[in-house]
Protein 1
Amino acid sequence: MSVELNHRISGQGEPLILLHGLFGSLENLGGVARRLEDGWQIHGLDQRNHGSSPHTDEMTYPAMASDVVAYMDAQGIDKAHLLGHSMGGKVAMQVALSYPERVLGIIVADISPVSYQPRHDAILEGMKSLDLRGVKSRTEADARLAEYVETPGVRQFLLKNLERIPKDDIEQDDLLFRWRLNLPVIDASYSNLSAAPEGDGPYDGAVLFIKGADSAYIQTKHQDTTQTLFPNAELKIIEGTGHWLHAEKADTFATLCRQFLEQ
């Protein structure tokens, strides 16, 4: 069953739906939205169990694709371009495979339509193990999370999911913060999120894969699977970037998106 997704709309023109990655929210693609809203109507979505969207026990790519289509129905959108990063890229691919008649084209940022070995076990363990009792600021939370997650930038990204509990909802005097995302379900569903999008394909529409040159998420060995599912796919590579290519070289990323969308 689909859920009603939190969203943010900006700009005017053909609809372009933005889908963030794991542990993210619609804010993560805000820079892309700002760079493209002069030519397209941007629909930034919080995916289920993320951001301000509802929490639900089911978390699979078909379920998340149904959320996107339900959102399109609610907004009166017949067809749209989709742009997804990482997990969001797999959701975009799932929508294209399951509902091709609703898709004008998709942009997939640094992910392939394949299953991956677990890459986030340490992060999940760190977030689950983080004791939030007595934490009075994000700085304190960062110091505690550093015991589990070494990279400061990764901690900063994860801690965007930490929210202060409203006064009326506080049940323990020493517990002032909570995770905004549905950590237990994300943890339990991690194998689903590591899996490939479902569907035999092919999706015959236009597809652009954008790879960060320093990232290993898109590899040559994925090419056959990609071509089978998306025979009209093209690949662009942004040098000097990793998995966070849309943030590391935002202008270059947006230019590639613009060129594709204007075809």
Protein 2
Amino acid sequence: MASHVLLSEPNREKPDELPVGIRVADKAGAQVGGIHACPDLHGEASSGNILAFACATGLLVVTQGDGTPAIRHLPYADSLPDGKTTTLIGGRGLQYFLGNYGADKVVLIDPTLESDAFRLIGLPTRRVHFAVDPVRAKFACVFTEDGQLHQIDVVKGEIANSLKLTGPYSMDGHWSDPRPRVAVAGDRIVVTDPLQGVLHLVDATSFEKTGDIAVEGKPFNIVSVGGSGQTHEGE
């Protein structure tokens, strides 16, 4: 962040367990301040000019302070059930974070609020994967183990649309077993279907299926990559 580096602090007493916090170093490598506690640190994302780390107790929220990063702890609300976020995605266009919370929920997080910063959204079955829509800023997508893709309205904090795409994919078994993944590319949402060997295409505006792309093997993780060209006049 600017001329500073944020480093996860390992659990030195139990090296096999998750990190316990964040420390800040300047460009010379010297530590600035103490350790910012973040037990069971797992998950990190940025949204706009805010960086967030998921902890067992809430989030560490990082902004650019007066010369050095400003770090504060945003505790989970007392109204939330037992659980924690371990995967964070930062919103694009709108400043928010989307995280997992329990097996069948996601949580919307507004890090600028002191109260009511967490909004829990229940899902019909256990969550498999989720992604934000970088083009349509008010929407995110969540795929659940019953084969449905859900469009989340992050402003209203509710499911706006649901679409059946695949057969069931149980979350039982190893965490790395091939299961559908979601990516948004322009006006298309693409969902992998490892058991059928296809990519399902969904129109991101109408939220209707538009086709399939057959691929060999078991398509699993997917990422959308884009770019913009530069026009050189008079050459």
